Amino acid sequence: FEFDFKDGITAVVGPNGSGKSNLSDAIRWALGEQSIKLLRGSTMSDVIFSGTSTRKQSGMAEVSIVIDNRDRSIPLDFDEVSVTRRVFRDGESHFLMNNVECRLRDITDMFAGTGLGKETYAAIEQGKVDAIISSQLSDRRGIFDEASGIMRYKNRKREAEKKLATKHVVETAQGGVAHYAALERAGQLDTQAAQAGAISALR
Questions:
Q1: Strand, coil or helix: what is 201?
Q2: Whole-model pTM above 0.90?
Q3: CA distance 101 to 88
Q4: What is the pLDDT of residues 149-186, one digit of tens each?
Q5: What's the confidence (pLDDT) of residue 143?
Q6: CA angle 147, 149, 153 (to 5 degrees)
Q7: How many whole angstroms separate alpha carbon 74 and alpha carbon 69?
Q8: Residue 87 in contact with residue 45, Cβ under 8 Å?
Q9: Which one of 2, 18, 121, 149 is most buried, by most CB atoms within 10 A?
Q10: DSSP secondary structure of 54-71
């Protein structure tokens, strides 16, 4: 299937079971959603077509999103930016950016501050509007952080703090190893000195 979303807001309507939520789930999934529960499944293979009485099941699922980037809202020097996600029944998965394989983090960083991404409100499923309106002020702040473009800097701050914490743990561990190595070396020297003294006494 191929959908062409024009400027402005696009509303997808239809009766129950027509696949409205599948469309928003597909967009979230392509943008990097990792929680299968939010995609209304139990395992990642649930996103793959399981077949019907007239059509056999698929071996993989793939969703591609192509974005008009002539205004350079995404910080890449391309007029169009495509993001593709694939998953196979054996668990193998791939992310691609403009048909070049990349990491999930690359996609997350690219969309940070643009209003797109798995945690933004570019695609809102049924019931989410009420949840936004009735949410607490602290929860709404994330929406404004993303819309104002500062979310990417908050993400970088968190990553830097994690790296600093990891570096501190490693340095502490290295210091402990060096300390015990010094104690062990000192113990060996004491033993060697005692042995040397005993030999001298015998002489």
A1: helix
A2: no
A3: 15
A4: 666 667 777 778 788 878 777 777 777 667 666 666 66
A5: 64
A6: 135
A7: 6
A8: yes
A9: 121
A10: SSPPPSEEEEEEEEE-TT
